[in-house]
Each structure stands twice: as structure tokens, then as C-alpha cells.
Amino acid sequence: MGAVRAGWVVVCLVMGGWGPVWAAERPNIVLVITDDQGYGDLGHTGNPVVKTPHLDALAAESSRLLDYHVAPTCSPTRAALLTGHWSNRTGVWHTINGRSMLRANEVTLAQLLREAGYQTGLFGKWHLGDNFPYRPEDRGFTEVYRHGGGGIGQTPDVWDNAYFDGRYTHNGQVVAAEGFCTDVFFDQARRFIRAQAAAKQPFFAYISTNAPHGPLHTPQKHLDRYPDQPAELAAFYGMISNIDDQIGLTRALLVELGIARETLFVFTTDNGSATGATLFNAGMRGAKGSEYEGGHRVPFLAHWPAAGWDRLHTSDRLCHAVDLVPTLVEIAGARVPVGVTFDGRSIRALLDPAVNASDWPDRMLITDSQRVRDPVAWKQSAVMSQGWRLINGTELYDLSQDPGQTRNIAQSHPERVARMRAFYEAWWAELVPTFAEETRIVLGHRDCPVVDLTSHDWIQEVPPPWNQQQIREAVDARGARHAGYWAVAAEVAGEYEFELRRWPVEVDQPLTGALPAGAKVAGASRAFRESPGRALAIESAALRVDGREIATHPVLATDRVIRFRATLEVGPHELSPVFRTANGQEFGAYYCRVRKL
After folding, report:
1. Among candidates 262, 283, 260, which has minimal Cα distance to 273?
2. What confidence tens digit (pLDDT) does each residue in 255-306 have?
3. Looking at residue 477, what is its pLDDT?
4. Measured distance CA(419)–CA(417) in Å, rounded
5. Who's near 548: CB < 8 A, 6+ residues apart?
6. Chain mean position to CA 370
7. pTM > 0.70
8. 287 and 281 in contact (C-beta within 8 Å)?
9. How far apart are CA 233 and CA 245, in angstroms?
10. Does 1.10.10 match the CATH number of domain 441-596?
């Protein structure tokens, strides 16, 4: 299914000469996924404070999964959600460190639906790679309106972006927007929906909010809805209420356009609560990042009137994000390329109120939280079967008796522990060979001749500077020598130019200079831009390729960029440009633009 070209893999969707599948029941698909909102951060799941009337109304007339799981953090969940594969298999087991880029040989849901005749749009957060060939437009989306990195104000995002009046990337071009980010992303999605409805074109709208992920900012009117809560909770719940309002507007538009009946509307989230668990967590242990239930059990709602999914129907069967692609592919009548198999299975029967799924077989599923450069066996892992959880290979919990996971009963059930451990060991052994398949940013490709690299994707043992506050504060000095590098691959051999910058291209300020703090933002957190930019006494710059220093250059106080040229052979390289101070301290070049000459 793939073809090797100059050191990287191109996915070719070869289906054997078929045209679009026009199944009579094929719905439009709206998939809303929010960021850092947990199972307990909704009114209908029992939260006594948060106001989510539109989502509560949706839940009352939808199929609901009560035991649906994702990864404990965002990029890994999105990788599983969009491929039907275990996150670790796709190369996405972290949110930074060059480990959040979805391998080029993975086939995404957007690609499959596009081949089946759908128009495909992404609105908001991608977080599976900011450079070719990992961008959403490289992975099947025909319309893209997004921020950079994993959140607004992170290192790959447009400089000084905050949650209001930001600048976003629309089909490859940076555009200015007015208003709060969530409102902007939903508004762009509704424009897309209107256009496809007018054209009578089936569509897949993937609305992926960065909210309620921190920094915790929201319009004042939403803060005012929670006057009795601490500032952080008021902002967090305000962000959720804002999302809820936008979901109400979007569902109203589907009714207005006369397409609500033929539209499958899915709502879910990407991991456990990052903030709300301090007040209410639906009785679960753990929150975002945790291997315990509160880290990865999240809400899942599916509403599709034409199929009879417009009344309350619940399933308590164990499900996972890897099940979504096989389910939607089946519903949409899309075909899967030869050689592609899913780690999940279709759960359409569980979602359909007309189907008796009482004989649904038990199965084992795994989730884990790696967040390291290279995966570690058993790290923050949960082996799950119906009603049982094996945590980190040593702790066993019976959720039917102990939903809060307070009593480890592993010693009382050695046979069950052994079965679950054996399942994990086989799963891990299958995945281990894939860990060596690095995701490399491609240089010199005709479809992306200019590549902008940021420190977000440095590969190193410690977390790199992943947000703009860390860039402003010059975070990197972890030793005399900069240890990080970008994993790249030259598409063609020849001479390349490397532009080293302390500040991104759109700032274009001296390498040694300071920057003033940016404007404040309403809410409970400081925006990343509110920290002043630190001056650095840089005296020289150097270019290292594959661990070898190939050029140096002095830096003057007025220099805004240092340019090097170097010849690269076709294939993989480790790129590590640095700045040096008078005392020999190295700082990685936070930004580097590369072009083939």
C-alpha cells in the first residue's frame, strides 16, 4: 500500500479501481472532540456545577458509551482516534519531543472518507505534526483551519497568539481572526457545513477545540456564570460552557439546513480532566495523564436520527478510541486499502438501539501514558477487560465492587493477573519493532520547499521548550552542550540553506535582544506571551549535522538571523544548530527555516 521515496513513505490509497461509494444511508459526520475535558465535566454525568444544557440535551437523545477509553493525553488519543491503531504503533506516544507526529505510512479517517466521496474539514487542534508530511492537509483534509502545535501559544503556533483575536493557518496561509478561539473554530466549521450542504456534498467536519486546555481563558460572560467558584474552576467551566453554546449553535444550523436527520453527530474528549477533577470526577481515581480510570475514561455521544440513534440508549461494554475508525468506515461505506487492518473493531452494534448486543464478547484493551523519548514497557499502563483493570502490571481492581480503584486485589486473583499480563506482553512484543520507525521531517520536497522547524520537536531526553513562554525565558540551558536535534530526511541531495533564529520569522528581532511582555488575557492564567523576552549574550552560531559541527559564524548585536549552507545526502539526518554565549553555554536555535537551494 505504500511506496518508498527518498527516505520516507508515501501512503497510496489504492483500492483497485473503484469509485465513490454512495450508500443510501451514508450520513454526514460531525465529530467534536474537546481538550482536557473529563468524564465528570458535564452536567449529565453528575457534575453539580458545570452548565452544559446543550450537551445534556444531546445526551438525552443519543447513544452513549459508558465505558469508553482513550489515551491519558492528547496527541496519542488523536492518533488512535484517526487511524484505528494503538497510539504507540503510530509513533505518537508523547505530545512533544518529535513523538507527536503521525507516521506517514498511517492511513487516516479523513483519507478514507475523502476517497469515499466526502469533503473533509479540520477546525482547531491537530497536534499530529506541523511539518510535511504530517500536516492535516497531507493526511486527507480538504479544508484546514487550525492553530499550531498542541495549543494556542505553543512554540509552533503563530507568535504571541492567545485565546482572543488570534492568527491561524487556513489552508496553508496565516489569517487573522476576531473573537475567542472556540467561537472562531466552530464558526469556520459552520461555514464549511453550509457550503457542503449547498453543494449537496457529504462531509466530515472534525471540530477539535483547544479548550478547555490551559491557559485558562474565556470570555467574561462565561466567567460570570461561575461567580462562586475559584478562579481556575470558573475559567475551566466557563470554557466548557462556551463549547456547549457552540455545539447548540451547530446543531441548530443542521436543523436550519435540513440535514440534521442525515448527520451523525459525535461528541467526545481526548483525556481525563485537567482541572475539574478537583471538584467532581464521577467517582474515579486519577485525572489527565493518569493510568487510573479518571485519566482515560471519557464521554462518548452519538446522535444519528436517520438510523434511530435519536433517543437515550446506553452501552456499558468496554470500548476504545481505536474503535472509531472501523465504525465510521462501516457507516460511511468507505473501503480500506489492502494491507490495512485496525486494532479496534466496529462498535456500530453497541450504538444502535435496535440491535441486541447482549452477546458482545469480552475483550482486553490497553492504554498507557508514555510521555518519554522512547517507550518503556508497563509505564503508566492499564490493561482493561470488562469490569477489571490491571494497573502497571501489579495492581488489580474489580470495578464492579471498587469503581474508585482503592483496593488492590492482585494477590487474590493470580490467574486473572497472569492472563492480563500475558496479553500485555504479547501486545508489547508486537509493537516493539515499530518503535524504531522514526518520524522524520522531510526537507527539500517539491510540495513543501520551505520548512520551519521549532524546538517543540527537538528530540532529547528532557522536555524541549514547547511553548512561547519558554522561548521568551530562553529555557534550554541544561548543560554546556545543547543535546537536542531535529530528526529530518532530505528528499533530494544537494545544497540546503539553514536560517537560525532566536525569535520566529514573524518577529524578526535581533538574536541577542529582549522582547517586551505581550498583552494580558482575561481568565485565570497568564498567557504565554505575558512573560518578557530575555536577552541573550550570544557571540556565535554553529551548525551541527549528524553530530558533526560543519560551520560556525560570529553573531553581532544587530543580527536577526544567521544563515548557513550545507550539502545533504538523500536520507536521514540529525540537525542541531546552536547559539553560544561568551562562556561557552549553548542554546539550541529555537527556530530554523530550511530550504533547498
Report:
1. 283
2. 999 999 999 999 999 999 999 999 999 999 999 999 999 999 999 999 999 9
3. 59
4. 6
5. none
6. 15
7. yes
8. yes
9. 18
10. no
